């Protein structure tokens, strides 16, 4: 059990102590409409982890109430993820669809109690009748139907005698409830579609709010743990179970904060878009935050669980730095995997004074790793080193090989450059060097001082391997769409050279390639004839260096702890009212609405901007992300920009003057100078390029520069569409209108 107790475990312990709960039963209830991602890993770790810690059990339940998007391949991926993370579900995999008959019977019971009715209003009327946060709703005249009428209509709905949307079944609760979710919520809707398990048995499907609490009850769940956006649904959850007066024990719902990671998109819908759009190579593309992706990339289950643990369980949504995850995998592999040598970009070295060949003994592990094992390193006069480990005209702090500076070949000898050979273009193609006979590693008596040791391979006996260098999929912290993709997220090196023991002896599947990072033998494409290695993570975060952050996440963990220990704070009435207005009237997503509603300054700022420009969703996004971030650092009175300037910014985004990406740049400038957005755009020439003629010309240029990729695309490699779009966006410094680019690239490549 983790040593610190989070708020969920505190609740569970109290429930055991008070006797409210006899056995701890949890469930992980994914909807099988996409591959699970690291957010699901967190939910898995919490649900299965709590069950394990308190000697209970956890069910794996497919929440398959939405027949249009679900599929068995997702079911398999979900099972695989749970197993890979090292958990076991109780009994068989469960399906909400297995309970359709029972759930239907409960609906009948509610109808008979006069607590549910068939409504026949149109969608628009239903919305209108629901009222607003400031106005009570009005009940439909159909609520007057008798029990008999309702039973008959519901039976006909079930038999498929009506069209989709013609009738719905609603709970009869309270049309003036302050929590708008309680204003006669939908229980069943008509859907004439085939279900991947239930086939065509049903023409009506239960809504989440009705199916979830009952499925929990049917399975004997004690603690129904879900994410924060379901906070307002808790009242319906309780209403259904209480109204049906079910035999105890009954489940209770508790919410925790979703996991969000910067530089990462994590909704299944957005991931599906990447997969279908060919921007990545399937659901298990090693750049995706899916469990299948991490698994293929070489992450270990231990590292993912350590990450989830380090993030903690909080009651308020927050963004975790992706370097925290990268730290966890490094930390796990550092003491586990063999260290070997692989040269990614070989430069030939000929040792003019070396004759014959030998085999050097080299340990797979450094002294501080408590593991044993060694291999032979072949050595001869033909060596390869990394191209950038030699420089002819080095800067002052360059410690590797130069015409005047010797270097040690790791585990072997010290070498000294004698001659630099170049081709006609001036490129260095070979170094002639001498080795110092008495400088052998471990028995060096040469007295030569070198400033570094570099990795190398024996050119004649090394094996050629393919190395796939993965980097972050997005180049911006809060990615929005394809325009934010990192054009360099995958680099393939076809003929790297690796020492032979790695292939012949296979001491492991994961390795540290000395000075390069951690790598994993690709579980799909690797063969002995054509070995393929995926880069898991670099040795030090290169992105951390870019942003001048230190590598250890100790500071971050501290910050997180405050949130973990933080109180479970319910919304005040005012906050709840705002939240409802934001989600229902303004259609903001619940996460954004939650951020705004809980912060009086932020919501006031938002309302002010909204009074200038009627673009609720775009404004809310900027205020809840960018503006909120600024306010974490300074007081609102110190902001250089005003709400009306934010409204101006959104206006020029909405009308297409600038792209979302450029908007970020403009915002940064507003933070620093307080200048008006249109002035910044004008001064810096940031206007979005939407003119098809200009974009066309740029596309032509990109195509001429990449004839091979054009050919590959035409031969059927549709994945390259993303490459071309990325290149064009890059060529315009992000100013090209992504929609236009997408469309034109598509046309031109036909
Ligand atoms: P997405 O929005 O990514 O599609 P979802 O919430 O629709 O995710 P479900 O399959 O319904 O995905 O979720 C299964 C379980 O995993 C739920 O209990 C949900 O709350 C949890 N979960 C999903 N995403 C996250 C996340 N980012 N962090 C923590 N838990 C999550
Ligand atoms: Mg969902």
Chain oligomer state: single chain
Q: What topology, given as strand order, has the largest sheet?
A: 12-25-26-27-23-24-13
Got a strand count? 27
Bound molecules: adenosine-5'-triphosphate, magnesium ion
Which word captures the global form? Answer: globular
Task: Note poorly predicted spans.
Answer: 544-568
Q: By helix and strand content, what is the structural category?
A: alpha/beta
N- and C-termini, Cα separation: 57 Å
- Fraction of residues in helices? 25-40%
Mean pLDDT: 91
Largest sheet: 7 strands, mixed
Total of DSSP H or I helical runs spanning 4+ residues: 26
State which percent range the strand residues make up. Answer: 15-25%
Radius of gyration: 31 Å
Word description of this protein:
With 750 residues, the chain is an alpha/beta fold. It contains 26 helices and 27 strands. The strands form seven sheets. It has a seven-stranded mixed beta sheet. A seven-stranded mixed beta sheet has the order 21-18-19-20-14-17-22, with no helix packed on it. A four-stranded antiparallel beta sheet has the order 4-5-6-7. The protein is globular, with a radius of gyration of 31 Å. 39% of the residues are buried. The protein binds adenosine-5'-triphosphate (ATP) and magnesium ion. Adenosine-5'-triphosphate binds at residues 29-31, 39-40, 42-43, 226-227, 258-259, 266-268.
């Amino acid at each position: 059990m983790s040593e610190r107790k989070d708020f969920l475990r505190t609740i569970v312990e109290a429930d055991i102590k008070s006797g409210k709960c006899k056995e701890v039963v949890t469930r992980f209830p994914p909807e099988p409409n996409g591959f699970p991602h690291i957010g699901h890993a967190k939910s898995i770790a919490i649900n299965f982890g709590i069950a394990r810690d308190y000697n209970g059990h956890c069910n794996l339940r497919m929440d398959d109430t939405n027949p249009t998007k679900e599929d068995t391949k997702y079911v398999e991926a979900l099972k695989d993820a749970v197993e890979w993370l090292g958990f076991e579900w109780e009994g068989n995999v469960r399906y909400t669809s297995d309970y359709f008959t029972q759930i239907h019977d409960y609906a009948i019971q509610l109808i008979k109690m006069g607590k549910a009715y068939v409504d026949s209003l149109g969608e628009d009327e239903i919305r209108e009748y629901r009222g607003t946060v400031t106005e009570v709703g009005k009940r439909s005249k159909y609520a007057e139907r008798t029990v008999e009428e309702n039973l008959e209509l519901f039976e006909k709905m079930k038999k498929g005698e009506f069209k989709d949307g013609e009738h719905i079944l609603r709970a009869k609760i309270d049309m003036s409830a302050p929590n708008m979710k309680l204003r006669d919520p939908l229980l069943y809707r008509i859907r004439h579609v085939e279900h991947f398990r239930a086939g065509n048995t049903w023409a009506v499907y239960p809504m989440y709010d009705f199916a979830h609490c009952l499925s929990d009850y049917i399975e004997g769940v004690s603690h129904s743990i879900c994410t924060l956006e379901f906070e307002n649904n808790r009242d319906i959850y309780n209403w259904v179970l209480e109204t049906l007066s079910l035999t105890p024990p009954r489940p209770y719902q508790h919410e925790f904060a979703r996991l969000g990671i910067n530089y990462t998109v994590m909704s299944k819908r957005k991931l599906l878009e990447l997969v279908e759009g060919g921007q990545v190579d399937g659901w298990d593309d090693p750049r995706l935050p899916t469990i299948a992706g991490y698994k293929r990339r070489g992450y270990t289950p231990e590292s993912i669980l350590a990450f989830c643990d380090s993030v903690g369980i909080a009651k308020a949504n927050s963004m975790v730095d992706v370097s925290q995850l990268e730290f966890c995998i490094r930390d796990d592999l550092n003491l586990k995997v063999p260290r070997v040598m692989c040269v990614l970009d070989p430069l030939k070295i000929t040792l003019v004074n070396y004759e014959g060949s030998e085999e050097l003994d080299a340990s797979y592990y450094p002294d501080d790793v408590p593991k044993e094992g060694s291999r032979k390193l072949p050595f001869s006069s033909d060596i390869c080193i990394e191209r950038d480990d030699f420089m002819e005209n080095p800067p002052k702090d360059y410690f590797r090989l130069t015409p005047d500076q010797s270097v040690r070949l790791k585990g072997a000898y010290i070498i000294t450059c004698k001659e630099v050979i170049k081709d006609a273009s001036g490129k260095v193609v070979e170094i002639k060097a001498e080795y110092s006979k008495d400088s052998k590693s471990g028995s060096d008596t040469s007295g030569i001082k070198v400033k570094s040791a570099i990795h190398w391979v024996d050119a004649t006996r090394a094996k050629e391997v393919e190395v796939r260098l993965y980097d972050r999929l997005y180049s911006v912290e809060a990615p929005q769409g394809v325009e934010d993709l990192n054009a360099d997220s995958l680099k393939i090196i076809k003929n790297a050279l690796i020492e032979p023991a790695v292939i012949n002896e296979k001491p492991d599947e994961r390795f540290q390639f000395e000075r390069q990072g951690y790598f994993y033998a690709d579980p799909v494409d690797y063969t002995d004839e054509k070995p393929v290695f995926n880069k898991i993570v670099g040795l030090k975060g290169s992105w951390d260096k870019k942003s001048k952050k230190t590598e250890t996440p100790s500071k971050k963990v501290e910050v997180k702890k405050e949130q973990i220990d933080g109180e479970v704070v319910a919304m005040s009435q005012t906050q709840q009212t705002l939240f409802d207005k934001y989600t229902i009237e303004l259609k903001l997503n619940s996460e954004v609405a939650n951020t705004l509603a809980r912060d009086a300054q932020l919501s006031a700022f938002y309302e002010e901007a909204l009074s200038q420009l009627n673009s609720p969703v775009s404004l809310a996004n900027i205020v809840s992300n960018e503006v909120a971030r600024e306010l974490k650092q300074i007081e609102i009175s110190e902001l250089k920009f005003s709400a009306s300037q934010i409204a101006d910014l959104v206006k020029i985004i909405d009308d297409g003057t600038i792209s979302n990406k450029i908007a970020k740049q403009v915002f940064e400038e507003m933070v620093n100078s307080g200048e008006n957005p249109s002035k910044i755009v004008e001064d810096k020439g940031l206007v979005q390029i939407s003119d098809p003629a200009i974009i066309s010309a740029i596309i032509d240029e990109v195509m001429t520069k990449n004839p091979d990729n054009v050919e590959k695309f035409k031969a059927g490699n549709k994945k390259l569409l993303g490459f071309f779009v990325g290149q064009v966006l890059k060529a315009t410094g992000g100013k090209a209108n992504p929609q236009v680019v997408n469309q034109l690239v598509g046309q031109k490549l036909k």
